[in-house]
């Protein structure tokens, strides 16, 4: 408890010092800039001058009145000064707390940021980390569903894990997927994992793997989904170089890209996926 009380005391002390320094700088700045300037109201537009001061055609004493007069910072009404001080204090406290929470001034008085070995002591963060380990290539929306956390909470813990290099992400045509930061998966394996998250897309990969040269119409007949839907999946797989296409006359045939064949075979075997002997409709 003493250590915790000491940290709290140090934080409060630092905050008070920053507030005093901020207030001093504000006062000096106001003095250096010459304070505030008060100008006679009759210097405004002639139209409004007639309304508020009457006809200016005659000789009036106020027309010969004094010019602008400078006043010092401390000559302002006490209420204005108090309001400015309160605003300055609130801003200083908010900024100080923000700096401490972000760890940007961790060097002050020996305070330190979270160490990498302690980053997973947070129960919620540990849950997010374990979810990523168990589901390589998982996306943010899936993490929310599996953990029960809100979007903002999940995103916060993911950013922390990324900042400490415990996880990495891979961007594909399907979005951003998260992985443990290790040599477990190659770049191509990460891409395949992300596309295999969708059951329909995984089936398309498996079917083309077992039936190289299949066409979009044939895929649509096997999977029982519309041709436009098949095109949507194929476009994503082609954009990430998992598939390649060859045109023969008016027909386009699809194949697994040679550089992905081994990774897809490993994925199918690892997941123990049953690849059926699909009958290609004529």
Automatic annotation (TrEMBL):
Spans through the membrane: 9-31, 76-97
Domain of life: Archaea
CDD domains reported in the protein's UniProt record: HTH_ARSR
Entry annotated with the keyword Ligase: no
Annotated InterPro entries: ArsR-like_HTH, WH-like_DNA-bd_sf, WH_DNA-bd_sf
Keyword annotations from UniProtKB, A to Z: Membrane, Transmembrane, Transmembrane helix
Name of this protein: Winged helix-turn-helix transcriptional regulator
UniProt organism field: Methanomicrobium antiquum
Lineage: Archaea, Methanobacteriati, Methanobacteriota, Stenosarchaea group, Methanomicrobia
